[in-house]
């Protein structure tokens, strides 16, 4: 805690620390974890934790846009989450629908483009309709690209890409010998966005849980004990500062990196 003798440096409200010239990530992915533990610690129901998590989502979207992040992908609901108690799943679906109904116009006013990735067939027709409407409304926006991963799994994503390539081969449209990393990259979700530079997971868990397995091949990972409802703009800035302190090698040696940077 800052003492009266060492006051916090003056800064514009809600804008966090001033960043050095080190580059920020272009694409940040976040595994939002800890809503239930946050609620349990306060004697609240699990759904109250999810509602609190929505406030954290708003704060992080706002800060990511301020920082000039190109793409922010949030893991909202995995394909494994259907295994949770039916009451919690139903409440999550209601919360997802409410967010689509209430938040999309705000995103649009701020120039944010919204996309949803995942298997939409698992959702109700109402949710699917609102997803389509939200994407159509914000399609031409040029600010932050906000991606919500819902009923999503990395293995599902890769398997679907492989199936589509196989269908093109079977139709005589594609030579199997021409299939490479680039052709696979063009078929997975988010093919038009920069690869994930930086993945944040809250709540202290240290795994990626089947999230963007292809897209995060070279991502820097940041694990924080902060529970998601407590992860605010300041916490996001601290994570970005951590990223700026990393040396990204991409298989190269220190000497090669220095020569590349010097050139």
UniProtKB/TrEMBL annotation:
Tell me the protein's name: Ditrans,polycis-undecaprenyl-diphosphate synthase ((2E,6E)-farnesyl-diphosphate specific)
Domain of life per record:
Bacteria
Q: Transferase: present as a keyword of the record?
A: yes
Its annotated function is as follows: Catalyzes the sequential condensation of isopentenyl diphosphate (IPP) with (2E,6E)-farnesyl diphosphate (E,E-FPP) to yield (2Z,6Z,10Z,14Z,18Z,22Z,26Z,30Z,34E,38E)-undecaprenyl diphosphate (di-trans,octa-cis-UPP). UPP is the precursor of glycosyl carrier lipid in the biosynthesis of bacterial cell wall polysaccharide components such as peptidoglycan and lipopolysaccharide.
Species source reads: Halomonas aquatica
Give its E.C. classification number.
2.5.1.31
Which family does the UniProt entry place this protein in? Belongs to the UPP synthase family.
> What reaction does this enzyme carry out catalytically?
8 isopentenyl diphosphate + (2E,6E)-farnesyl diphosphate = di-trans,octa-cis-undecaprenyl diphosphate + 8 diphosphate
Q: Which cofactor does it need?
A: Mg(2+)
Give GO terms: molecular function aspect only.
transferase activity
**Residues annotated as catalytic:** 33, 81
Gene name, please? Answer: uppS
Record Pfam families: Prenyltransf (PF01255)
Quick one: which residues bind substrate?
34-38, 50, 78-80, 82, 84, 201, 207-209
The note on cofactor binding and number reads: Binds 2 magnesium ions per subunit.
Q: Which UniProt keywords apply?
A: Cell shape, Cell wall biogenesis/degradation, Magnesium, Metal-binding, Peptidoglycan synthesis, Transferase
Lineage of the species this protein comes from: Bacteria, Pseudomonadati, Pseudomonadota, Gammaproteobacteria, Oceanospirillales
Q: CDD domains from the xrefs?
A: Cis_IPPS
Summarize where Mg(2+) binds, as residue positions: 33, 220
What the entry lists under InterPro entries is as follows: UPP_synth-like, UPP_synth-like_CS, UPP_synth-like_sf
- Assembly, per entry: Homodimer.
